[in-house]
Design a protein that fits this description.
Strand order of the largest sheet: 1-2-4-3-5-6-7-8
Number of domains: 1
CATH topology: Rossmann fold
Number of helices: 12
GO molecular function, one term: serine hydrolase activity
Strand content: 15-25%
Helix content: 25-40%
Protein name: AB hydrolase-1 domain-containing protein
CATH superfamily: Alpha/Beta hydrolase fold, catalytic domain
Structural class: alpha/beta
CATH class: Alpha Beta
Length: about 290
Amino acid sequence: MAACATTLRVWRRGMTLRSFCTKRSTPFNAPGVKLYSVSMKAAKQNINGVDLFYQQTGTGQHTVMLLPGALGSGKTDFGPQLESLNKDLFTVVSWDPRGYGNSRPPERDYPLDFFERDAKDAVDLMLALNFKQFSMLGWSDGGITALIAAARNPAVVRKLVVWGSNAYVSEQDVKIYNAIRDVSAWSARMRKPMEDMYGAQGFPKIWGAWVDGISQFTQRPDGDICRELLPLISCPTLIVHGEKDPMVPACHPQYLLKHIRGSRLHLMPEGKHNLHLRFAAEFNRLVEEFLCE
């Protein structure tokens, strides 16, 4: 398998993955971001033996599930979406996957099927909340989970939006992950949100476990995560890619586009890994238009 071409210069300048995951460059009251005065429900639901934390807001007929990235939660990863997606059109549900955020215990682990496990948890949670059909918005690891969920549950997933996601792991990808394994090299500002959530001792442990967990897919033929499932996705699919994303080389969204039937790709020239946060108003508008088609 040909390795993706990318660069690690951004990491050598002291940037880290969490700089793309936690930097809130677009405040919720930024121009073009509409705010809604709607209550937010927060609760836990026992799913597959785990109490999963979720947040729910909005009263719209079209239900949308938000799936966060690695180590993330609804609160840390989707503030502008929970605040500003149209609450009249959509009912918005975010979740914390098992072992992340407020869905602890258990402590997070990474067996080779952890994405499949997350996909089953996510769908089972939504069904338990009496949502029989819904769309999924998945970022990074959450996008991988959403791809698997859509392929496995074609009658349930209505539409799909993914960004910062990949269907396989290459050796070049592993180099990117290992370049940011040592969290002590991260700035204090970038470490703080994860240390607040997992503790100063717990954060390096769970982050290192994630690096090992995502890297293990290189043991599979062609680094497969969910390659064989992509042709099974039948719902309308929007792939969004930030052209300045240092975590996900451009070959990954192109691969998704080629192998998901009828999918489309939207490029954001200035977007990085956290494009839905940095350009929240543009991203929300794009998503709303796609979901309403």
